[in-house]
Amino acid sequence: MNDSLPSRLPATERSRHRRLREQGGPERAELDAILAAGFICRLGVVVDGCPMVVPTVYGSDGRHLYLHGSVAGRSLLAASDAEVRVTVTHLDGLVLDRSAFEHGVNHRSAMIYGTPRPVTDPGEKPAGLRLLTEQCAPGQWDYARRPNRREPAATSLLALSLAEASVKLRSGPPDDGDGPNGGSGRWAGVLPLVTTFGEPVTGPPPGNAAAPPHVSARAGAPVG
Questions:
Q1: How far is CA 186 from CA 10, 148, 171, in A?
Q2: The model's pTM
Q3: Is 99 exposed, middle or buried (0-12, 13-18, 19+ CB in 10 A)?
Q4: Cα separations in angstroms, 196 against 32, 34, 35
Q5: What is the DSSP code (8-state) at residue 196?
């Protein structure tokens, strides 16, 4: 967690929880953990007057969320210096109650609010691209060929401050055991959801080597 940001997430008019407040995560450490556990976010932005939600990879340094795409990409062009929303969600299981109305989802989710800025600084841009790469595949930046001079020029990189964000978390079993449905004889419980990496699949020749240890070691590891 970065010391320049408060340890608790500020409850702004946009980020404060109006419903299910007990599921709110007020600590910045909870936001950091959600971001560290994944690498796919959804960027919400208005493009040509219409809302667009785009899945994209991200990287985080504890202060900013870095997003990237083609310099010709409509969503990143529209998001530059405009109000956006970014969400990251991890699904942990279905909460199946005795009543269909009471069903729920165990999850960890975060929403970041703000106006991203284009990253053009010659020192910050490669650092941001490294964060993106390492967020997806730790160890890959040092293993793979580094970007040449042309490639970063063809890539847009945005930095979105993590100063304003909200977190929601839901875990545990159904809670209807003490209610009128508790004696119905129906099953209630949680159906866990676990996503894992599979075994690496080597690409076609020519000259392809075996998967490096930092890749093969992730086989079977959970995602999110």
A1: 42, 61, 21
A2: 0.89
A3: middle
A4: 21, 17, 17
A5: B
Both tokens assigned to 112: 């970041």
Q: Look at residues 111, 138, 116, 158 and name the one whose alpha carbon lies nearest to residue 39.
A: 138
Structural domain boundaries in the chain: 21-177+189-193, 195-224
Three-state DSSP class for residue 32: helix
The predicted model gives 186-203 an average pLDDT of: 93
- Minimal CA–CA distance to 154: which of 75, 81, 74, 68? 68
The tens digit of pLDDT for each residue in 147-165 reads 988 888 888 999 999 999 9
Q: What is the CATH number of domain 21-177+189-193?
A: 2.30.110.10
Dist. CA 77–CA 108, nearest whole Å: 29
> Which residues neighbour 8 within 8 Å (Cβ) at sequence distance 6 or greater?
26, 27, 28
Q: What would the two tokens of residue 104 be? A: 């729920």
Report whether 198 contacts 158 (CB < 8 A).
no
Decide: residue 139, CB within 10 A, 0-12 exposed, 13-18 middle, 19+ buried.
middle
Q: Please check whether residue 190 is in contact with residue 103, taking contact to mean a CB–CB distance below 8 angstroms.
A: no
